[in-house]
Structure prediction request, 101 residues.
Amino acid sequence: MLNHFRTGIAYVSNVAVKERDRCKGIAKRLMTKAEAQARSWGCRAIALHCDMNNPAASRLYKGQGFKSIKVPERANWPQPKTSPNVQFSFMMKLLNTRTSS
Prediction:
């Protein structure tokens, strides 16, 4: 049996919940599933961009353990495709990839 483990970083490109369905824990469940998928791939971290003018999203991600980090100058990260005026915070969370017995 060939075992292949990824050691990269999973990137979440978009989390959206219809306005009428917000504040029901849906986004938290989506992020929990994204983290579980990243772990199953063997990723060591998960990252995303968060609109700095969206305090609800910022609270969600910070509450899930994400930290805003400064991206190194030459890093090759995807940039969100949006209006030029929108500013984003790059956020990352380290994942515990060890399984408990």
